[in-house]
């Protein structure tokens, strides 16, 4: 037993003790993102009762994404000022309250308003806050820790959606959403309130002092040289990351909506197309864990390039008619890259600008979510005019290729601050 514990301790490295509890709390909080997955699953029931068109129902995503994009910079700033735990707890309270109100919806605009508020709550339990909380406690194994935490949204979707559909079948969609509200108060709130804790400044100083020099810790320890949001906005790396994140969302959101339609357009049976779609989503759990492990052993920039290379590959595969083998190549490359992106982005932000202001800088990058929401509309418009997704997929492939090339020019911007000459002896390209 002692050998087993020792082997587990070596594998988890600094994800141990209080840090492990924080990671667990953040994992459970991230499961709250799965609350956004249930509406497509309940769409038939909701539309059948309310009499809305599919366009009216789907349009709710736009104001929700707008709310999430607008709130992201403020969530990052609030996480630094008041602590990620407070932001997460308040967001779960808001999330639970919104889902207790959904059963009372009687009109379309009430639904839109609640979807916007739900978007604010989902932002508060999303990538920005949990990455800030985890980064305080885990240094050497931060990539793996983030992989564990971010798998919570996928795990939540796997567990929650079938359960909610079953409840809706037994009663109705209103009761199903009401039970989700109770679940937020009964499970997510205690997990965040009891397990997540802020690390004091003294504790962070001790951790930084005792961490091994170089290796995976070089860009993960807070220092006085870390760039603020205002300073980061004046760097080339920020705008490279901004463009690459826009290209990702523009492509990713479009494929989520049109993947099944694309495969069936080429003669694939609907059940087979849905199976491929579900497989791509399910791969997210494993890709986050895998790239998290890899990211702790290679430079952050290389992790980023691996992820975007797989993303670019998936878009290139779409340019040819999907045979069985090519369809699976797409599913594997897309399923790996879309989910692993969650892990590498906080890491590369820290590598370029430092860990201290990672949350607000990451938050300032998230308005790309709203810009990326144009992707599904763009793909639909192309298909409606030409009867094919070909032109849309060509543009997606071009944007992904440009993003991949641009990422080669990322660098540690702390070495290029005004008044500081780049050191000839230090790597200025975010390599460890």
Following the backbone from N to C, one meets helices and strands in this order, namely: HHHHHHHHHHHHHHHHHHHH
Uncertain regions: pLDDT < 50 for 5+ in a row?
421-432
Indicate the multimeric state: single chain
Query: What's the architecture of the largest domain, going by CATH?
Result: Up-down Bundle
**Can you tell me the overall shape?**
globular
State which percent range the strand residues make up: under 5%
Q: Helix count?
A: 20
Averaging pLDDT over every residue, what do you get? 86
The secondary-structure class comes to mainly alpha
- CATH structural fold name of the largest domain: Growth Hormone, Chain: A
CATH homologous superfamily name of the largest domain?
MFS general substrate transporter like domains
Percent range of helical residues: over 70%
The largest β sheet comes out as: none
Separation of termini? Answer: 36 Å
Radius of gyration: 22 Å
Give the class-level CATH name of the largest domain. Mainly Alpha
Number of domains: 2
Count of beta strands: 0
Quick recap:
The chain is mainly alpha-helical and 432 residues long.
